[in-house]
Design a protein that fits this description.
alpha/beta; QueA-like; Thrombin, subunit H; 2 domains; nine-stranded mixed sheet; six-stranded antiparallel sheet; 9 helices; 17 strands; about 20% helix; globular; QueA_dom1; S-adenosyl-L-methionine; QueA; cytoplasm; S-adenosylmethionine:tRNA ribosyltransferase-isomerase activity
Length: about 350
Amino acid sequence: MKVDLFDFELPPERIALRPAEPRDAARLLVLDGAGTRDLHVGDLPAQLRRGDLLVFNDTRVIPAQLEGVRGAAKIGATLHKREGPRRWRAFVRNAKRLRDGDMIDFGNGVAAVASDRAEDGSFALTFAGEEPVELLLDRAGRMPLPPYIAARRQADARDAEDYQTMFATEKGAVAAPTAALHFTPALIAALAEAGIGQATLTLHVGAGTFLPVKVDDTAEHRMHAEWGRIDTATADRLNAVRAAGGRVIAVGTTSLRLIESASGEDGVIRPFEGDTAIFITPGYRFRGVDGLMTNFHLPRSTLFMLVSALMGRERMRAAYAHAIANGYRFYSYGDASLLLP
């Protein structure tokens, strides 16, 4: 499909620079068989059915953005995928000043050797020393805000909390599973009282999620791989919910992509551990999920293509036009949509 089919105009003022307070006060655009409704995230329990199950991603964002020097050259690095105990694949700013074998000094006693430049311009960074890399990043790194926020303001102390979900336990993501940012303990309690369950899986979101689609046709785009895991107990639970007539509703496109990666043609969700580079566009037949809660995405992005596959391209274009006209806030810190095909 032509990428132009997924383009739309978004006024810059619609991009949220901070999350709603409290988190569940964010707006919620509901699209289902009854039409389109303007609500708030706190209204979610009444939009679901007893026996439904929400699936959250429990990945935790690490301070994966680094600023350093190689000689006199300033080098920026954003880690996006772990390749070993001390080795990460990273997108590099000012990469033309970097060669295989160069040492980058990130300050605070943190340094890494660059190697294995890939076709996409990324490098492997192998961190020096014996301290766990997580400790090195806590010392020298900062929260990797999405480019469309970082271009307008610096990350600050608030982001260390704002850019983590209440489910974040498994360190390894360089971007938050942002749909889950809207949830609070009070909302989870209300969902439980309404008979709506919850489960977690892990997908370590990579910085590749923000990369623009540079080709003209979706068939030519290649996704970056991300590591994920669904254990046996979780897979069994998801299958049991659907067998009993409940719906499996992914909270965030990261949860959806991992569930779909673990689902067979028979609709059975199986345990999964490894990389996925699944790319979902219109025409895809969903096998493991029955709905999605997600934020509002970039024009021409793989994520807008995904929601178009779930709900239909024309319906999503109309929904986004409605959201823009009615003042919804977009992207990572923005409002949410509940999509129930």
